[in-house]
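Re: that backbone. Tokens:
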């Protein structure tokens, strides 16, 4: 099987979020997919195969972390669309059939790719007892992000607090179905981004995800409502960093980013 490693939400190698991408004729059994994802050992590995013409989607798409399958993944979808376009396997808009529904991607003239994802239904909740100690910072608010994502979105006081987080990952596992998304406004409103975030997913085998497209389906409505603008840019302040451009369109969120292939080879086993 041919495998590519693609850095997503960046225009240069060794930044953004790396994803494995395998284009297949059909899906092997789940155990095989999980074995491959564990061997690749990145936040997610995407597996895709073409679907018959005339249906609601063009490709079937699944995503696996090193330990489990997930319902939604942004960066590995971006990486898959990038591979389809750069290899000539697809052109123009691509529709993916996934566990969270049909997702579409559209290449843009500047080389970036826009993804159309469902907007997360945010519900404000009480800050769970003990979360401040686990996170190492005092939350200002907490929001549930709905079943497809399963994260707890935590608002913190400022950008410096988000950047300085060193959470107790084992303790964080008690506070959400998937993980914790910590966010705050940009310290400098005139800089290239409007807000910062960091994402911790120890429950699914990812201590800190470098750049999380799916989390921006919750970050986009959260910050668009607060800042009064539908189009925003988020900086995920992990060690690799990445910029995510979002546009809120009611029940859908457009997520735009770039990607670059860094490894192209064959899986021999």
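Recovered sequence:
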């Amino acid at each position: 099987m041919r495998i590519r490693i693609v850095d997503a939400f960046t225009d240069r190698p060794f930044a953004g979020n790396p994803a494995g991408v395998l284009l297949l004729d059909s899906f092997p059994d789940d155990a095989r997919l999980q074995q491959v994802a564990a061997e690749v050992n990145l936040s997610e590995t995407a597996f895709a195969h073409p679907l018959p013409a005339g249906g609601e989607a063009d490709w079937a798409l699944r995503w696996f972390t090193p330990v489990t399958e997930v319902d939604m993944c942004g960066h590995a979808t971006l990486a898959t669309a990038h591979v389809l376009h750069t290899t000539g396997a697809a052109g123009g808009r691509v529709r993916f059939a996934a566990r969270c529904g049909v997702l579409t991607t559209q290449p843009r003239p500047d080389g970036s790719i826009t993804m159309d994802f469902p907007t997360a239904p945010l519900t404000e909740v009480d800050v769970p007892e003990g979360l401040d100690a686990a996170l190492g910072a005092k939350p200002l608010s907490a929001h549930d992000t709905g079943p497809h994502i399963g994260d707890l979105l935590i608002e913190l006081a400022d950008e410096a607090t988000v950047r300085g987080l060193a959470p107790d990952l084992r303790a964080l596992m008690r506070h959400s179905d998937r993980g914790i998304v910590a966010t705050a406004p940009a310290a400098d409103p005139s800089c290239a981004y409007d807000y910062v975030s960091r994402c911790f997913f120890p429950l699914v085998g990812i201590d800190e995800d470098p750049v999380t497209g799916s989390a921006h389906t919750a970050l986009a409505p959260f910050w668009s409502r607060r800042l009064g603008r539908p189009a925003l840019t988020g900086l995920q302040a992990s060690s690799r960093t990445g910029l995510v451009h979002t546009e809120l369109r009611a029940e859908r969120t457009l997520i735009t980013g770039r990607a670059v292939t860094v490894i192209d080879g064959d899986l021999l086993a």
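Residues 2-108+257-266 form a domain with the Diaminopimelate Epimerase; Chain A, domain 1 fold (CATH 3.10.310.10). The first strand starts at residue 2 and ends at 8.
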